[in-house]
Amino acid sequence: MGSDRLYSKGRVLGFERAMRTQNPNVSLIQVEGVQTTKDAQFYLGKRIAYVYRAQREINGSKLRVIWGRIARTHGTNGVVKARFRKNLPPKVFGASVRITPSLNHVTNGRPVNPYSGFDHLRFTVTNAKQAASYYCTRLGFEHIAYRGLETGCRETAAHVVKQGEAIFVFESPIHPDSMQDMAAEIARRGDGVKDVAFTVKDCRAVYTKAIARGAKSIKEPEEITDEDGTIIMATLATYGDVQHTLIERKDYKGVFLPGYKDTLTALRYKDPLQSLLPHVPLQFIDHVVGNQADGEMNPIADFYEKAFDFHRFWSVDDKQVFTEYSALRSVVMADPEERIKVPINEPALGRKKSQIQEFVDFYGGAGVQHIAINTNDIITSVTNMKQRGCDFLTIPSSYYDTLRAALVNHNKVSKRPVIEDLDVLQSLNILVDYDENGYLLQIFTKPLEDRPTLFVEVIQRNNHNGFGAGNFKSLFESLEMEQDIRGNLTDMEQPSS
């Protein structure tokens, strides 16, 4: 169904002048005669249009929206929070808007999202048994399934761990003459995330569309059956050597996937440490961040938009995220219902090598930089992870002095004032970001291996769908201190004129 003839009227509202300083390219748009809902869609008659595709024509000047989402209902007029590609001049506020939405996956006037969410992450590592044990011991995961020699697999061993709905798989080659490509990749890149798997409703349909739009096939759709049911799987390539496996689970009842057995049955063993260590209430994978080389962010974002029907949900550039030494650009890609979020980062030119470039150098190219795991109780999660021996970045005390002053006004006007004790947050090095609707709490581990590559973020959202833009400067400064200790905060080569 085309979208070039669908229009709606609206006007640009002030968004506290785009939060005064941080985001002058953000605004609210009131859409006339449109009844909005709490999710990221609005209605035009019986048709639903996704805001992220909208084009705005303001006073004859076309300003492209990078992303948009429902902020609140306003009678019969919906209010959409939108980020524009460039800063909005003051004269734009109050101006009339023509909205040209585009429909995506629409059936009988209703949108059909082919994605259900993240399915699991698969790591390729030198020693899967030890890696799985580390994540169980330090981060509070539980070992749930296994595939290896004991289950009839002669080439690799794979250990599956789970916490809440977050599932990680650690896989290693187990014979000198088998899986040589996997072994060579591990030798070059070190341990890392090889596969970011998505649960889908129709594997063949998603795969076929992606291939038709330029995606590279790793494995064609295959139906696999065991005593617990049937699944359909296919695998596509994305940035670097990372893959996306599409998994249609149907009514599969097994512990994980066909070929895997539950840990107690397969290994006849249960780790006694689990009952001795404090519980970590992590819930699900919030987002998975991919780092790229300079100049690769937009091509990768365009690939997700074209091949997977993702949209640009959020973005920042080097004018917003920078320190004395370095900067980055980032765009967050998301599926139509924003269950899957994939931030794409690239380094920007600075005096010193940024932490994005450090990752690319030590990983040998593009790859997954960090995994954000959602929790509804970050204080308990971080406290218990620390008791388990997990090591986090240290945030300067000056950050909390500034935060205390800023929150005095925020808590008076916000719909969701920060209720956590700031002294406790400071003692745990937890960061706070906020807007008029709510706030988020976040913290980052140090790299989980010897190479300064993969780390984990723990995040708690309180009516806030951002990614901590207000914390980027403090976070970057903390990361730069760690880089300096490693001897990697070095001068960047400047481009020749």
Automatic annotation (TrEMBL):
CDD domains with a match to the protein in the record: HPPD_C_like, HPPD_N_like
Domain VOC: 117-249, 284-446
Pathway it works in: Amino-acid degradation; L-phenylalanine degradation; acetoacetate and fumarate from L-phenylalanine: step 3/6
Cofactor: Fe cation
Enzyme class, first EC level, given as a word: oxidoreductase
Classification via InterPro entries: 4OHPhenylPyrv_dOase, 4OHPhenylPyrv_dOase_C, 4OHPhenylPyrv_dOase_N, Glyas_Bleomycin-R_OHBP_Dase, Glyas_Fos-R_dOase_dom, Ribosomal_eL33, Ribosomal_eL33_sf, Transl_B-barrel_sf
UniProt-recorded Gene Ontology molecular function terms: 4-hydroxyphenylpyruvate dioxygenase activity; metal ion binding; structural constituent of ribosome
One GO biological process term: L-phenylalanine catabolic process
Assigned EC number: 1.13.11.27
Keyword field: Iron, Metal-binding, Phenylalanine catabolism, Repeat, Ribonucleoprotein, Ribosomal protein, Tyrosine catabolism
Similarity comment: family membership: Belongs to the eukaryotic ribosomal protein eL33 family. Belongs to the 4HPPD family.
Protein name: 4-hydroxyphenylpyruvate dioxygenase
Taxonomic path: Eukaryota, Fungi, Fungi incertae sedis, Mucoromycota, Mucoromycotina
